[in-house]
């Protein structure tokens, strides 16, 4: 059933369009997403998305920002629920598991976060930059906890390696090469091998 733009309260159409886009992403890759189809899904005129986003790229940037915020929330939740008795290595495994779980549950959102055409490497949007920084800080803090005596330069390199390993496992999961259940023991083997 079609809705008119008047059905939305002032300020609620933009998030409704974003939600419609996320709904479409479940079955349509973000590279095939069209503003016209988003408008149809939201039940508004085909011009409505242009008033809020200008173009498709601006909408994809917004979707990537919302998705990265969700990923950050998943990491913060894993951090907050960590058992104080848990070792630093087990904590890093829990963070990695949360990262992979987000990718497994929302592969379409995960893909739009890291599409270099959407979030240009080295030139993120003003909204995306602090989200990326926050994810990096969480991973760096957890990496430092397992390697407290390394130099700052080594810590940066180690954090990049940790992020790369976790991200690589997430990519393997969403591509269907491994299952989320297989990812966790891989994280344990990498970061907490004494538990094996």
TrEMBL record:
PROSITE patterns: HTH_TETR_2 (PS50977). Pfam families: TetR_C_33 (PF13305), TetR_N (PF00440). The keyword Transcription applies. SUPFAM superfamilies: Homeodomain-like (SSF46689), Tetracyclin repressor-like, C-terminal domain (SSF48498). Keywords: DNA-binding, Transcription, Transcription regulation. Residues 11-71 form the HTH tetR-type domain. InterPro entries: Homeodomain-like_sf (IPR009057), HTH-type_TetR-like_transc_reg (IPR050109), HTH_TetR (IPR001647), MT1864/Rv1816-like_C (IPR025996), Tet_transcr_reg_TetR-rel_C_sf (IPR036271). Residues 34-53 bind DNA. This is HTH tetR-type domain-containing protein. It comes from Agreia bicolorata.
């Amino acid at each position: 059933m079609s809705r008119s733009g008047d059905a939305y309260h002032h300020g609620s159409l933009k998030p409704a369009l974003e939600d419609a886009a996320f709904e479409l992403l479940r079955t349509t890759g973000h590279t095939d997403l069209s503003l016209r189809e988003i408008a149809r899904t939201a039940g508004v005129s085909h011009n409505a998305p242009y008033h809020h986003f200008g173009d498709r790229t601006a909408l994809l940037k917004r979707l990537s920002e919302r998705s990265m915020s969700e990923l950050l929330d998943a990491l913060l939740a894993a951090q907050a629920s960590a058992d104080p008795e848990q070792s630093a290595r087990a904590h890093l495994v829990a963070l990695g598991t949360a990262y992979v779980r987000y990718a497994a549950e929302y592969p379409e959102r995960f893909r739009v976060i890291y599409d270099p055409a959407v979030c240009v490497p080295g030139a993120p949007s003003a909204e995306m930059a602090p989200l990326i920084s926050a994810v990096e800080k969480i991973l760096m803090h957890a990496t430092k906890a397992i390697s407290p005596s390394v130099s700052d330069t080594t810590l940066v390199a180690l954090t990049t390696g940790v992020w790369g390993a976790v991200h690589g496992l997430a990519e393997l999961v969403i591509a269907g090469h491994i299952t989320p259940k297989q990812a966790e023991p891989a994280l344990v083997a990498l970061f907490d091998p004494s538990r094996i």
